[in-house]
Amino acid sequence: MSKGQIFVLSGPPGAGKSTVRQALLEKRPSLIYSVSFTTRQPRAGERDGVDYYFVTREEFLARHKQGEFAEYNQIFGNYYGTSRKTLQEALDQGKEVLLDIDVDGAAILKMKFPGGVFILLVPPSRQELERRLRGRGTEDEAQVEERLARVAYELGSVGGYDYLICNDRLDEAVDGVLTIIKAESYRTKLSADDLLQQFAF
Amino acid sequence: MSKGQIFVLSGPPGAGKSTVRQALLEKRPSLIYSVSFTTRQPRAGERDGVDYYFVTREEFLARHKQGEFAEYNQIFGNYYGTSRKTLQEALDQGKEVLLDIDVDGAAILKMKFPGGVFILLVPPSRQELERRLRGRGTEDEAQVEERLARVAYELGSVGGYDYLICNDRLDEAVDGVLTIIKAESYRTKLSADDLLQQFAF
């Protein structure tokens, strides 16, 4: 049994996952971010090895063939994958590990790490989601429509998530995730024998 | 399905349950304390209807016969019981309800309310527990020994608890329980249909 703890953050594009993630890593420096591999193009400001490992389709599939991914899937024509080795190493070291994975990738990961904590981040409304997606300007109109069309599908997975956080105000959403991570650190992990020994009873 | 949430706080005598409970109720006024019935004598400063409903053995057993208790049991010669009606009403109103129940009472309650959150409060060491028990001066030496002899039995139930909090520093223990209660408020309760409707997707 690994000593660490997985926290998976999912949500529709535009829910604010990247912004929340950056704030979380600043506020809880002990939290390790599992950087995903992707074949999509970097957006302005995104750094290789920090936001994603940006790789070619060929490299991605070669890594998959070598069994490197704990989960991977394809969304909007791009591959995304989580490194099994990086994840397992962090868990073995007893770290809290944060992952940003879409709902289908999260489903795959949950089968392999059922003890993970799964958090779904949602926008306050469809209107606000549209506003954010158009506002960030990283997708053309067809791509925005494609993302909006997938939202109902994504939210359909809510029942598999442990926690649901509405990202209306960023600071409250970040505080919510931090609260969940901190609460999880109190989760009972000791056996009765361990406890009796530890407290010298 | 009730809308509220049960939080059960258990722990050996001297772990600091009463002090933690009082701090919790001050810091989170929305939290409702489920006042237990007991046949034990009030300690100095304890108020009827606030800390416990202090009743005679005859009254306790009469109430039990009328099915009034969601759980009850006998410890150190005294009866303790949780009012089913008070608990259910608070839950129906969507309240967060705090209960202070010993490990066996908690076990009974967990069978009836498996969705409850169960928190075990433990002292930092056996020595510190002894010091606190003798320091509070509410039990004679024989009673202190009786309580100490039961601690290993009580800690043996740790596996049934969701969270384990060591009450070394009071403010940290209180903050831990508050964090757990707050995190629980983000627990996914909406169905996919509810969510889609709420966010107008």
Can you offer a commentary on this structure?
The structure is a homodimer of 201-residue chains. Chain A has 201 residues and is α/β, with parallel strands linked by helices. Chain A has one domain (5-198): P-loop containing nucleotide triphosphate hydrolases (Rossmann fold), CATH 3.40.50. Chain A is 43% helix and 21% strand. Chain A contains 8 helices and 9 strands. In chain A, the strands form 2 sheets. Chain A has a 5-stranded parallel sheet with strand order 2-7-1-8-9, with helices on both faces. In chain A, strands 4-3-6-5 form a 4-stranded mixed sheet. In chain A, a hairpin with a 2-residue loop joins strand 5 (69-75) and strand 6 (78-83). The radius of gyration of chain A is 18 Å and the shape is globular. The interface between A and B is large, with 38 and 38 residues.
Determine the structural class of chain A based on helices, strands and strand pairing.
alpha/beta
Order of strands in the sheet with the most strands of chain A? Answer: 2-7-1-8-9
Give the helices and strands of chain A as they follow along the chain. Answer: EHEEEHEEHEHEHHEHH
Radius of gyration of chain A: 18 Å
Strand segment tally of chain A: 9
Helical content of chain A (DSSP H or I, runs of 4+): 40-55%
The number of helical runs of chain A is 8
Low-pLDDT stretches of chain A are: none
Q: Distance between the terminal alpha carbons of chain A, to the nearest Å?
A: 25 Å
Strand content of chain A: 15-25%
**Architecture per CATH nomenclature, i.e. the level-2 architecture of chain A:** 3-Layer(aba) Sandwich
Identify the CATH homologous superfamily of chain A. P-loop containing nucleotide triphosphate hydrolases
Shape designation of chain A? globular
Biggest interchain interface, per-side counts: A-B, 38 and 38 residues
Number of domains of chain A: 1
